Amino acid sequence: MPRVLIPLAPGCEELEAVTIIDLLRRAEIEVITAGIEPGPVQCSRGTRLVPDADLDEVAEDEFDMVVLPGGQPGATHLDRDTRVHDLLARQAAADRWSAAICAAPQVLASTGLLDGRTATSFPGAIDGARYPQVQLVEQPVVTDGKVVTSRGPGTAMDFALHLIELLMGPERRGAVEAKLMRPA
Fold first, then answer.
1. What is the DSSP letter of 37?
2. Which residue intervals define the domain DJ-1/PfpI in the entry (predicted)?
3. Percent helix, strand, coil in the chain (nearest 5)?
4. What pLDDT, in 10s, does the model give residues 94-136?
5. Can you give the residue ranges of every domain in the chain?
6. The pTM is what?
7. Least C-beta-crowded within 10 Å: which of 87, 103, 110, 150?
């Protein structure tokens, strides 16, 4: 069973975080949520999430994928956390997946994971002048190598389903998606 880490920062976008957590767990992927600060995480719209662990408890563990929810100031908090940058660098060095949605692709950019890659994000989250080596596109979900990026809350379900497909294959994605009653 694949293992996925989802770091949660104060001010993260709850729609993205919960959608990703929920759909990956429906696919029977082991999901570990880890707060970058102790205790419950207050999200951008006031929802409080209780992480499974503190980031320090799992930061040295191996994961098949690390997924960063966006939202502000959540993405900024993730970007300022050296443990998150270290995790992402280890993921890249081990040729494992890293993914981010909304404003969180800025963390991938500042870690260098988007250098020479095509990516997407919430409009303005990645400063093209600061990161000219990143090819920014306006697509819902973009995969380039072992890096996946997505636009924002409205693309969270497509993003999570794509992550399921990458980790478990198209049949598992289809099985999860069929039960969601999404319009054709």
1. S
2. 3-165
3. 35, 20, 40
4. 999 999 999 999 999 999 999 999 999 999 999 999 999 999 9
5. 3-178
6. 0.97
7. 110
